């Protein structure tokens, strides 16, 4: 059953118990049923910025599958119609039909599907199926399956009979115009996910939260890596402020392209305090060089930055970089005199202000590489 603390009980038997009311004018989100799911703290493995894509769907008559992974909330314009019908911001299939006049309804097993390549392989902890604006045309039930196929398989290879898909969410009723969250258990590492609508319908957005499980052989072959990159298994833990944009974006791949692509906090008015963000490395690593980028943060970049690290959950924090003046909209590079062996780092911004990206260049220690290899193997790779 969906996680639905904030929502009324879903009815498995009454097919209209989960309906949204028809759009009545005004703010289309006014009656949207949001959810509060603990796993949304974790990285979205289906983020386009990590390389995810919706690589195939059996039907996208009304609206294209690619919309599923758009970052922004789905938009609804009641006036917009196209050649095929209402323009919907999501993935929407046509209405399924039965076999003949005596059997106008689709068969119980009929469904539509879309296949998502995860941005990077990982353990899935929860899925959000957002049916925003799909009020009379959301699926009656959804299901989710996952598979692990290495390399770069295309749709035909993934649809072959010998590919085993494991059910993460069995066919389950969902609400229209709502965030439908599903917790996922099991610690397997997956590369692809299949989302099914039973029997048909529309879904606005799909989020697949979990933990990146990097390939130790790949990291070893590279030698020097960015030890904090999401793609290498770096994780955001906590921050002093998430007012404007997420501190987790500091460790995204690629450069920031606009102000809200990085971390921007609010103006700090309490003197003798500062903003900070804490990250965890995939395992113990030795950092040799640091990049701090304030790209697109011009009147609101951090004035100074400092970096501390610790080795282990209970290790003492020690200084990696002393408090250092930053320029707005600038990439700063620091070569460390001695390498810093850490599992966690804390970036301090003084007194407040944004940081777009941070990179920690170095290598996993022998113990770190062994730990990562063990986790990789345990997750079924
Ligand atoms: N008003 C609609 O959205 N109708 C249909 N969908 C689109 N996109 O036109 C349908 O049948 O679900």
Automatic annotation (TrEMBL):
- E.C. number(s) listed in UniProt: 3.5.3.4
Task: Spell out the InterPro entries in the cross-references.
Answer: Allantoicase (IPR005164), Allantoicase_dom (IPR015908), Galactose-bd-like_sf (IPR008979)
- This chain is encoded by the gene named alc
Family under the similarity heading: Belongs to the allantoicase family.
> Per the database record, which ranges form the Allantoicase domain?
51-212, 233-363
The protein, known as: Probable allantoicase
Return the annotated region ranges for Disordered. Answer: 1-27
Substrates-to-products reaction catalysed: allantoate + H2O = (S)-ureidoglycolate + urea
